[in-house]
Design brief:
Two copies of one chain form a homodimer. By secondary structure, chain A is of the alpha/beta class. Chain A folds into two domains: 395 residues, no CATH class; 141 residues, STAS domain (Transcription Regulator spoIIAA, 2-Layer Sandwich). Chain A has 23 helices and ten strands. In chain A, the strands form three sheets. A six-stranded mixed β-sheet of chain A has the order 4-3-6-7-8-9. A two-stranded antiparallel sheet of chain A has the order 1-2. A two-stranded antiparallel sheet of chain A has the order 5-10. In chain A, helix 20 links the parallel strand 7 and strand 8. Chain A starts with a helix and ends with a strand. At the A-B interface, helix 11, helix 16, helix 18, helix 19 and helix 20 of A face helix 11, helix 16, helix 18, helix 19 and helix 20 of B. Chains A, B: Keywords: Membrane, Transmembrane, Transmembrane helix. Chains A, B: This is Sulfate permease. Chains A, B: It is found in: Membrane. Chains A, B: One of its GO terms (biological process) is transmembrane transport.
Chain lengths: 558, 558
């Protein structure tokens, strides 16, 4: 902990300061926008942007990760709280902080129990589908705020809100598409141009806020943030045990997604930096502390944001000091006069949200998966559909189920090759791919998968089919060169295969068992009960068994 | 369908008839006992023993499977219905049939969608733990019926019930332990002796029923079955949509367990028979039809019972005709005068349940797993604990989660070996296990696991660690001889590794890519973007790269 601070070199300071300022300027509109997504007053987004980056800097392992409000986690917060409290009420805010506290405790517990491996339950296509589904849900949810009224044919349009909302939207889209190229044409350095483009939301929000008193938009009925109390509120918890119970399962799901989202962003950055080492169990502790910190200051669940972290990195962040500077600047924003925040128009904030989440619609994963592995592409689409139809929480479970389902489905179709000898050599190959010789009475099968509960029945079934096709088999050799592991279920499966084959007069042999697998098998009864032998190589098995079987002469096959 | 009937040979008939009779004699007390476990009147167990074996014989694929009431499924039924209706009421019976109908429809749908691979979601240790936990819950639940009153220190004991219950228990245990050996000593054939022992519950129940009028036990307060209407009731469904909704999730879980329990029993028998082929999607249809049939006759969820199926097989069943004969005999039992059933004493029925489920406590899986793979043993114990603490339904989910958790946990610790060349050969081996030579600037790593979302981050992390240890590396060769598959997540992972290494001045090469894996990779952009080459063998890579790297001379290692 804080090793980076003890080793701090002054050369890192300018980069950390500039990154700290840039991220703070990005975080103010983003934090307020994502508080809106969570159904909370925008200022709560600033409450949730002070302690979290500070605590993550103390406990986390990524040096450039920017922890704070994030769109998907805000959506999950909104969907958790919807049945429990009305947005805008005191209870709603209390429950949001309580949810952050519980998610934080879940993350801390996982970190102390060292079960960070749980993040591996989501495949990337499923994560991509989850993100796409969530982005669409968030954008759709903000449309109402963007136009200042309900989305319906018979609703009378509120033109000032619509003009401000779509005007902001147009400016933000143009800034995203054209600002950086334009600045580069004007000979601005590419890094600076890119960062300026990322700060466009800040300037659009400031401009729109200035317009409100100038054009008296608030008196025309454009919704604004409203009065913001200075300073930080403290922790407030609901006393009803029903609320604690209702928040437990959502806290588990949100904790899981907080970790998953933060890790995938941090990993992408770590690969870019080269050699930075993330320790997943310490990441859990860092994110847990950040969420507890958010709760203590009246915030809501937070996580690492890949877009902000990328800006932090690009703006020169060298160490966690950058995040600490960001936190300090956000605290100052609350201590400074906050009157101007009251006039911030919500249609503009909605526009920043829509542009941000539409930027999360990344179709390249779908394109790649569609070409490379159709099942993964379908899992992606099904997860996105699950989020849209069943909601974001069920979407997480759909995603886990589909990741695991695809895994088990693939395992249930193991690849098993009939081996033959390449004439005159000691090499054995798949008779379907090579011209290799086999010998009657001897069947050699290579199982191309680790043996575990997910494929043990399918493997036994496939072996049975091969035995029906090769009815004269007296010796069956399983070549285990591609078997990296055998779990307890598969150990039983092999034992049953051995007993069943013995009854049918077929001897079972093993060959090319890997070192670690053999070490394990020595702790079991299988080797003692095996009707045949364990051969070091397929060639050894052939030499011994091809001679001893009834009709001994090799014949070509394949 | 019914292929077995078209091919029926008369030689199979004697075996089928004797098995049909024996199983019917076993099924009458068992069916009534498991109805009691489900909280239903004992006669419902006979309703559920007529259509199910008949329909399974028509649609299923195992020739000796005995489908009907089964302890664990009855426990799940009881636990589902407990919050919805009081045992003994009309609604309770209606909901039990409705649950069978819905579970049956779930199974039929799974069969038509051909998703039988779902049965692979449970590892064997977890299944064993689930069975142990359920057996303990069932036995505990019957203690009250066994002693004819509540289990409490201040409860006044009901001596007639206690005497009858424990007397039955003692007889049943003695029959199970000693009857078969005794009969064998008397020169009875071993098969016949074993079957006679299995029929002991029938004789104990008949004897106890005869005692009731003889000793006027019913007038002393010993609970009995009570009046049984002759004939079969029809299908009765609850009209409240709330009930349909409440039963949906339990129906999914029960359908899943019905399939899992039946398949594991059928597979064990198929292995014994040798060469019998089970088609999992047709098994789903057979079990689905059986449950729908149970519902139509006022029954409750049913499945294949491994203990009854084993008796069926041992008693000579050759085809599905045996099950049809069983079904016919049970139908006769209902048409015949059913007055005697009214006097059947419940303490004796409870005793048969306790003896039956204690027979399910198989500790050998735990013993084997404890020695072979501690994680599997812990998953077994945790699943048993989950059933005991959280209940049988949550236990199923705990089991799936633990199976998957153990899988992902193992995947998160991939085995990666640094390879070196065995001097003077073309063989490459793990430098930790063999004395093999390496060359500076060239690092060869063999990944011993298929690459998928569960291990892609862990693999990248391990590679990073090896690169830190071998800091002078200019060429990294991943030897993929043990990689049987690369999913979309791992494809992205390799792409990111390639980009990250390129930035650090390390060239990434692949070697010994398997045929099917290479076929897949050709559909992706990875090979085009790879900074290095794809080599056919590790030796090729060594020959090309050991020369080209900075400090070319081989040096011994390991």
């Amino acid at each position: 902990m804080l090793q980076w601070l003890r080793e701090y070199r002054r050369a890192a300071l300018p980069g950390d300061i500039s990154a700290g300022i840039v991220v703070a300027m990005m975080m103010i509109p983003q934090g307020m926008a994502y508080a809106l997504v969570a159904g909370l007053p925008p200022v709560v987004g600033i409450y949730a942007s002070i302690f979290p980056p500070l605590l993550y800097a103390l406990f986390g392992t990524s040096s450039t990760q920017s922890v704070g409000p994030m769109a998907i986690v805000s959506l999950m917060t909104a969907s958790t709280l919807a049945p429990l409290a009305t947005p805008g009420t005191g209870l709603h805010g209390v429950l949001a902080a309580q949810l952050a506290l519980m998610s934080g405790l879940v993350l801390l517990a996982c970190g102390l129990l060292r079960i960070g491996f749980l993040a591996n339950f989501f495949s990337r296509p499923v994560m991509s589908g989850f993100t796409i589904g969530s982005a669409i849900v968030i954008a759709w949810g903000q449309l109402r705020t963007l136009v200042g009224g309900p989305i319906a044919l018979d609703a009378s349009p509120h033109w000032p809100s619509i003009a401000l909302g779509f005007g902001s939207l147009a400016l933000l889209v143009m800034a995203r598409e054209w600002l950086a190229p334009l600045l580069r044409c004007l000979r601005v350095k590419p890094v600076v141009a890119d960062i300026a483009a990322k700060l466009a939301p800040m300037f659009v929000v400031l401009g729109a806020t200035a317009l409100v008193p100038l054009l008296a938009l608030d008196r025309m009925g454009v919704a604004t943030t409203g009065a913001v109390p200075a300073g930080l509120p403290g922790l407030n918890l609901a006393t009803s045990s029903g609320h604690w119970q209702a928040l437990l399962q959502p806290a588990l799901l949100i904790g899981f997604m907080v970790f998953l989202i933060s890790m995938s962003g941090a990993q992408a950055l770590a690969l870019k930096r080269g050699g930075e080492k993330l320790v997943s169990n310490r990441e859990l502790v860092g994110l847990g502390a950040a969420n507890v910190g958010s709760a203590l200051s009246g915030g809501f669940p937070v996580t690492g944001s890949i877009s902000r972290s990328a800006v932090n990195f690009a703006a020169g962040a060298n160490t966690q000091l950058a995040s600490m500077i960001t936190a300090g600047l956000l605290a100052l924003a609350l201590v400074a006069p906050t009157g101007w925040l009251a006039l911030l128009p919500l249609p503009t904030l909605a526009a920043t949200i829509i542009v941000a989440v539409l930027g999360m619609l990344d179709w390249s994963t779908l394109r790649t998966a569609w070409r490379y592995d159709r099942a993964d592409a379908l899992a992606l689409l099904a997860t996105a559909g699950g989020v849209l139809v069943l909601g974001v929480e069920a979407g997480v479970l759909v995603g886990v189920a589909l990741s695991m389902g695809a895994l088990i489905w693939r395992a249930s179709r193991p690849h098993i090759a009939v081996l033959g000898r390449i004439h005159g050599t000691e090499h054995f190959r798949n008779v379907d791919r090579y011209s290799a010789e086999t010998t009657p009475g001897l069947l050699m099968l290579r199982v191309d998968a680790g043996l575990f509960f997910g494929n043990v029945d399918a493997v036994n079934e496939r072996i049975d089919e091969e035995l029906v096709e090769h009815a004269s088999t007296a010796h069956l050799v399983l070549v285990l060169s591609a078997v990296n592991a055998i779990d307890t279920s598969a150990l039983f499966g092999l034992g049953e295969l051995n007993a069943s084959l013995r009854q049918r007069g077929v001897t079972l042999h093993l060959a090319e068992v890997k070192g670690p697998v053999m070490d394990r098998l020595r702790d079991s009864d299988l080797l003692g009960q095996l009707s045949g032998q364990v051969f070091l190589s397929a060639a050894n098995a052939w030499d011994r068994l091809a001679g001893s079987s009834a009709a001994g002469r090799p014949q070509p096959a394949g």
